[in-house]
Every structure is written in structure tokens, then in C-alpha cells.
Amino acid sequence: MSLAAYAAHERESRGRRHAEPAPSYRSEYQRDRDRIVHSTAFRRLVYKTQVFVNHEGDLYRTRLTHSLEVAQIARTIARALELNEVLSEAICLAHDLGHTPFGHAGQDALNECMAGYGGFEHNLQSLRVVDDLEERYAEFDGLNLTFECREGILKHCSRSNAVHLGELGERFIKHRQPGLEAQLANFADEIAYNNHDVDDGIRAGLITVEDLTEVALFGEYHAEVVRQYPQLASRRLVYEIVRRMINRLVTDLIDASATRLRASGVRSSAEVRSLAAPLIGFSDTTRELHLGLQRFLRERVYRHYKVKRMTSKARRVVAALFEAFFEDPGLMPEEYGASAARLEQAQGKAGRARAVADYIAGMTDRYAISEHRRLFDPSERT
Ligand code: MG
Q1: Distance 97 CA to ligand 1 centre (A)
Q2: Which residues surround ligand 1, an ion (CB under 5 A)?
Q3: Predicted local confidence at residue 57, as pLDDT
Q4: How far is CA 124 from CA 40, 58, 95, 169, in A?
Q5: pTM value?
Q6: 218 CA distance to ligand 1 centroid (A)?
Q7: Number of other CB atoms surrounding residue 288 within 10 Å
Q8: CA of 310 to the centre of ligand 1 (A)
Q9: How far is the CA of 104 from the centre of ligand 1 (A)?
Q10: Which of 131, 132, 184 is nearest to 155 (CA)?
């Protein structure tokens, strides 16, 4: 597989935080990917909500299946643009490791609880998982991933947090771009969730094919599929439309990015990083179509009363857990209680709060629900 000059080349890597001997038969980025797949946080993704809470049905996406879909979309794009396929795959597999239980509702609730203690950002938490929280190696905390992989995982970051992150935080302060593999991972994420949420939204009965025909991107392919297969049953109809939408978005992203890369004249990933604007992106027309789909989902799926009922329950569970554990860290399992004591000694109340947030963020949906029951239902065994 040939790599373009502006792709991530391992010989130019900024390396790992703790020096390690080079792997003998794998590449450095392969090692990153393998470490991510072996991590505890990765296995937990299977029981974390994407939009629909895991126990509501077996067929909805979870954070794990979402991450796999993102990774495979990213690999296609990386390969077509001669970028580093393994690195973009690793970034995608890790991008949601720091997500709380219950999707965005959980993250918002935890962020509110942490308001006085530095806040909670899920991207930053993903980085914290791979840098500090995974406990697998004798010589260091975390997974000791390469700079390029960590850079990709930290998709967003507030300025106030970026100042504490050294070279990894620099681009948020200087308004610079990450490498191309990180840029494309963002788009693969959006393409994946916008399309799978169409499928999950229909499955959950929140939206219908009929409703979706008002979305230009969906409507276009709906007409095409119906013309070609007038008798097609509705599930297959949806799949035929969704695969066309993904294909359109991926193809457009590849073509428009290739054009932009050529026009920019960049010759290395260092030049890519020195730019203020990203080079990976859709054409104007397709970006509008994609935004139209995103808007529809926001209004009709994420704000649907059934989704909101679940998210409001989730917020209360997270908030109640935080309050109880913050009040008395001794209610947490010993290792977390110990880490609360350690962090509190170093950073005061903010340290205690951080340890509680780490514990809650690491929970799966069902674990959070059972912890809530164990804490608040007197008839439950503890
Ligand atoms: Mg994602």
C-alpha cells in the first residue's frame, strides 16, 4: 500500500510518551490499534448507548458497533487517498472510549456535575482513558499510544483544558489542524452516525420512510430505488437507500478532499498541521445535503419525546450517582475510593470529583442502572 507524501509516515512519528523497543513484525500504528482492541474500555463499548439505550432492543447500534462502522468507513477513505489506513482505523476504534453511559445525556449530566471542577468532555476523557486510566502494563499507566493516535482521539478540546496538554493541546490554542488521518476520522464518525441513526430511528418507530423523503439526500435515493425496485419490502428499501447515501458521502469526501489536497500543494504531514483550515471535507453541495440529514435527525429523532424521556432518566441517574459518590467516596469500590483519596490529596476537591467522574464515565448503561439501584433501593443487596 503506497502512502502519499502528506500521509502519516512512521519514521516521522513523534513517538510514545514512554520509550519502548520497536515492535518486530507489526508497525507502530498496528500496535496502537491492537492495544485499543485489547483494552477494558473497548470491551465496555458494547454495553454503552449510542442514541438508543442498549436494553431497549438488541438491534440498535451501541458504541461498539458504531465504532466499528466508523473504522471501516475511515479505512476506505484512507486507502483511497493513500493515507495511513491503520492509523485512521486505530483513531476511530478509540474515538469514543471516554463516553459515559447513556450517550450524550450522560455526558451532559456529568459535565454539569463537574462544572466547578474543570468540567467533563468526552473527547478529553477518551484521551484520559488511553493515557492514564487503563491499567495493563507494568511500566506505565494507560496504553502509551503514539502521538499521532492520541492527536486523533482528541477531536475537540476547550482552550482551558488545552493549555494543560503540552504539544497535544497546541493546535487548539493556535487554531491549527491535526494530521489527515485524524481529520478523516471526524468525517467517518459523522457519516456513520447520520446513516445508522436513520436505520435505528425507523426501527424504533420514531420516524418513517415517508417522513424521511422530505430530506433531500434521502429523497433522491428513495426515488432512485423505488424506480428500480417498485416492489421492494420496506426494510430492504431502507438498506438500499442508506447504502447509497453512505456511498455518496464517502465518494464525495474522497473526490473533494483529493482535489483540495492537490490544490494545496502540501508535501508532508507537518505542512498539513501548519494550516488553519482542514483539507479533508465534502464538496459544497454534498455538505449541504449532509447537513440537511443531520438537522432532520436532530429535530425528529434526538428530540423525540421517547428519546427525551430516556435521556431525562439517564441524567437523573448520573447526577444522583455523582452526588452520592462525591459526598462519600468510600461508597465506591476500593480502587476508586483509593484513587479519589490520592487525587484529592494532590488537587483538593477537584481531584475527588475527577475520580468520581472517572468511575461513572467508565460504567456501562446497565452497570450504572444497577449501581443506582444498589445505592438508592434499600431492598437491594449492595
Ligand atoms: Mg462517534
Answers
A1: 9
A2: 96, 189
A3: 63
A4: 18, 29, 10, 11
A5: 0.95
A6: 22
A7: 12
A8: 20
A9: 11
A10: 184
